[in-house]
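Supplementary Note 3. Input sequence used for the single-chain structure prediction.
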Amino acid sequence: MKQTLKISVAAVAACLAGLVFAADDTRSMRGADVNASDGAAEVKTYVGKRPGTQAPVARTFSTQPPVIPHAVDNFDEINLETNQCLDCHGAANYKKKKAPEIGQSHFLDRDGKKLSDASARRYNCVQCHAPQVDAPPLVENTFQGDEVAAKKPAKKN
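The predicted structure, written as discrete structure tokens, is reproduced below.
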């Protein structure tokens, strides 16, 4: 029994050593060299420079939070005292600023009661809404989303 256990442990150790010292040309399923170090990501520019200068970015599925079509790097951080997003998108100013109003769901508490101001659950805008950058896809894909489906004529039965 001890001899069989020793042989089994030696076989497992040999297999593991073979994995650790595998050839340097190991590649991922995408073809990337897995041994190459990752460089710093290239800094991308936002699609819209200033608020109001870029058309809204189309959603790729019906429940997707809208992406932010302008730069946010010069905005103050969102904290308990201030949320600069609400200066333009809040109920009080969105018409004057010609900005989209935040969704009505943002004015509901967890019990579904309507609030006069944005709910604390929805106060941190960038938790769900991300600024859009001009970047190519990381990998090639054929995803088209709901936007393409919406453009197709409905099937007639």
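The radius of gyration is 26 Å. The chain has a mean pLDDT of 78.
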